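Good morning,

Both structures are done.
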Amino acid sequence: MYRSAAKRTDAMTVRAEFYSRLREIVGATTLEIALPDNAIVSDLIQQLLSEYPKLRDFQNSMLFGIGVDFVEKNHAFCDGDVIAIMPPVQGG
């Protein structure tokens, strides 16, 4: 499922891909999200938390990946970045 959450015209757009329980909470596999210039991962997270409050249960344990690398919440976006947002991985 693909849905656009870009409701306003900002300096950049990133694509967020959601996995597992986070996908269920958001109700989409992918969202296109408008962010201001110089936005970082934590800016995206704050926007998502305001739109999807149930994500708060995972906010301290989410994992973020861009390309093949995991990134921290202070990672700066480039226009067109694709970020994977995942719940914590559990072994078993």
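Second structure follows.
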Amino acid sequence: MVIFPGSIYAEIEQLQDEHTEIDEDVRDWEFSEDAIEIPAFPDLDKLQKVQIDSSFGGMSFYIDPASLKIGRDEVVLVTTVITSARGARNILFEGFRCDTREYKTLAYGTTNNSFYEVPNAQWKEIRRTTGTTQDFRRELVTTYFCDITRLPLARDEILRQIKYPVFRDDDGRMF
């Protein structure tokens, strides 16, 4: 086959060469986590309600907008408050990775309105479960925190998405 300068074949070959260079850069990339600062305990009067699948038997989900931050490492950090129908409350400060669909619980809220920092917190896979309270993390990532290319949304977009949700499945399809 003869390739003429300026032909489509020459352009394709150039694009393939450029793609190979990008792939080498991607292989060399390593995730480097930012230092984490535990936020102030949330003001329960300023929480923002998050619409999560109703199959959780009377649980209500909230985030603390004051704690919401997207790090340089692209980790979404946020305090989540889960309240049962009887008023029991779990408060979690967690990090979410959009690219790998993982979370890390960094601190738990205590009864004396402070956080207990989790020593040696580890990243865990956000698994698809059905009808359990653990599903809220998957919904936070797929519906509120991340775009369909698995990049975090900007802080203002996350807050807008919480106010006016557009629901997506794990593959980014709207439903």
